[in-house]
Design goal:
2 copies of one chain form a homodimer. Chain A is of the alpha/beta class. Among the domains of chain A are: about 10-170, NAD(P)-binding Rossmann-like Domain (Rossmann fold), CATH 3.40.50.720; about 290-360, Alpha-Beta Plaits, CATH 3.30.70. Chain A is built from 14 helices and 12 strands. In chain A, the strands form 2 sheets. An 8-stranded mixed beta sheet of chain A has the order 3-2-1-4-5-6-7-8, with helices on both faces. In chain A, strand 1, helix 1 and strand 2 (about 35) form a beta-alpha-beta unit.
């Protein structure tokens, strides 16, 4: 299934964590010569074992260098790579773009060959052993053009993104950092602060937790070490958004402190309505798509049951547009909520019921 | 598939919204005589059309009355039902329990027949047409005993919960309200306040939104009218938790405002670590379960593909313990992340690859 790559020649990947190893796996799978380097020899050997590429050699002449090191180290490593490989275009994959660029400018690096980029991919927990060739599939990969940067350098990084199945999105450095402060860094902290409230909770309270709490706090499982660096590198923008958040929070607290006061309920209602409006703006099926009808199926939590359900749906020719699984507290059953096209709903309910599945009435 | 019900005689359901109609559907499906009442005759007729029961009659003699009206109206309706049906046990399903009870006590109602309860079920958007017989399946249903309340009254409400497939959980009134303030009401506001930040976002920023933002903000799509009542009825407990949240938020903002100051990064790191600890306490597979291995499959976003995948997994005898679907921005592909038992992972990858599926390398 190998497809020809857009990127040719050797690609040097510096840093063998989740992102670097995933870049290596994806490119190697397309036949690209990937030279892996890492401050830790053990990390490189592990990534080589996973099929992410070969050990880098002193005589490598890469056309493209991908720096995939923690945010705090990006500028220093990019500068060293620019100096060591004067013919290569260098990019990085850090979650923040302005701070490393400012450091590089201050250091007087040869920035005409540096293109900052950021694949919007990753998971709560990383490391080379979590690397996947498809980590970037279908994800936006921001590439940051700058005045004076050649089109061919930008295009080479976009070719890298395309080779890895990502969707290149051009944004300038500041616009990128504004965007991720809002859609990634602030949600991380909002979830973290909610999850912190649970540390002193009673078991009884936690036994009532539902999908809502789980969703709100899921990203709070992310790695502190990495996130401190990300947040520190984008601190002013994140702090500004958090100040707006705090102003709204103060409004809610004041309203709840005297909820029968004139205007108090209205303040809460307007806050909630603002939340409705905000969530409706998020693109994607979960955010706003009402094209589908829902079917809820009760599934015993034992081996084969979910596979059997989907197998039978496949036999019935019913396409699942989306789905959501919920596991039940204290019971050995799960609930599968399937989204199907409206005109398939009745047939799906009838056919599944006829086969003995328990469905919403 | 009708099973004998624990509850016998007529059950009167007052309020034909999502919860009332779902109670009616579930009980009717078990052959219980359900008498539906609602301040709106049109709402009752709609619920009858959906199969939730029959219209209530003046000569009904219910053994159990379920009050499923908005929180602000609960106390008044419960008092009226207690007076009108002197032989019936009356329960309600409101999300808050202390405020209605205090109102009832102040009104001098006959509280020896009133048992407050709360099924932890529901969705972002409700109404009778969203009613489902299985809405309560596998969910906790809190029942609140009180000194002086007969065991038989409490047991009757627990029988109702069991008939609807829910799991009865006994908690006193204050403990219930403490718990839902933490696991339901505060997360609702935290998500709402995050979603509000998106109302002024650029489209470019929103195009970078990933699963993290979607998860954090999902419940912000809930109905403001209902939630104002819930939050107002539990205002002091919610405000207290929000004050703790704000204190942590202030710590983070101060640290980000001067992120190179001594201790600033440590403050952010400790906040993030506290979030890790909190999310790990949530019961359920998403919260803490590391028993499973992950397989990521690329699925074309066209009819039948997901069904075909699950059909083939069923044929291969591979059980899916959990899964997560992601739709890709700007691309006609989706990503299905399957959780399987560790010893099934390699076989699943091999077999799916052999059948032509694209899997992580």
């Amino acid at each position: 299934m190998t497809q020809a790559s857009r990127v040719t020649g050797t690609v040097r990947v510096v840093g063998s964590g989740l992102l670097g190893a995933s870049v290596g796996l994806g490119l190697s799978g397309r036949g690209v010569d990937v030279a892996l380097a890492d401050a830790s020899p053990a990390a490189v050997r592990l990534a080589v074992d996973y099929g992410a590429g070969r050990m880098a050699r002193p005589d490598d002449a890469p056309t493209l260098i991908v720096v995939a090191v923690p945010p705090d180290s990006v500028a220093q490593v990019v500068a060293a790579e620019l100096a060591a490989f004067p013919a290569a275009v260098v990019t990085d994959v850090a979650s923040v773009k302005a701070a490393p660029l400012a450091e590089l400018e201050a250091a007087g690096a040869a920035l005409d060959r540096y293109v900052g980029s950021h694949p919007l991919a990753g998971r709560e927990r990383g490391g080379a052993i979590s690397a996947r060739a498809d980590l970037f599939l279908g994800r936006p990969w921001v590439v940051c053009p700058r005045p004076g940067l050649s089109r061919s350098s930008v295009s080479l990084v976009e070719a890298l993104a395309l080779d890895l199945g990502a969707i290149p999105v051009e944004l300038d450095t500041a616009a990128h950092d504004d965007a991720v402060a809002l859609v990634s860094h602030t949600p991380q902290l909002v979830a973290t602060l909610m999850a912190r409230r649970l540390t002193a909770a009673t078991d009884a309270a936690l036994s009532l937790a539902g999908g809502g709490l789980r969703d709100v706090t899921r990203v709070a499982a992310s790695e502190p070490e990495l996130w401190v660096q990300i947040l520190a590198a984008n601190a002013p923008k994140v702090a500004e958004i958090l100040r707006g958040y705090r102003a709204d929070l103060d409004t809610v607290i004041a309203a709840l402190d005297d909820v029968e006061a004139p205007g108090a309920r209205r303040a809460v209602a307007e806050t909630l309505a603002g939340g409705n409006a905000g969530v409706a703006r998020i693109p994607g099926k979960h955010g706003q798509d009402r094209r589908f009808s829902s079917i809820v199926v009760l599934v015993d939590d034992k081996p084969g049951e979910l596979g059997r359900l989907f197998g039978e749906l496949g036999e019935l020719g019913i396409n699942i547009e989306d789905l959501r699984l919920e596991h039940s507290p204290g019971a050995e059953i799960g609930i599968a909520e399937l989204a199907v096209l409206p005109d398939a709903q009745q047939r799906a309910v009838d056919d599944l019921t006829a086969r003995g599945w328990r469905i919403a009435g």
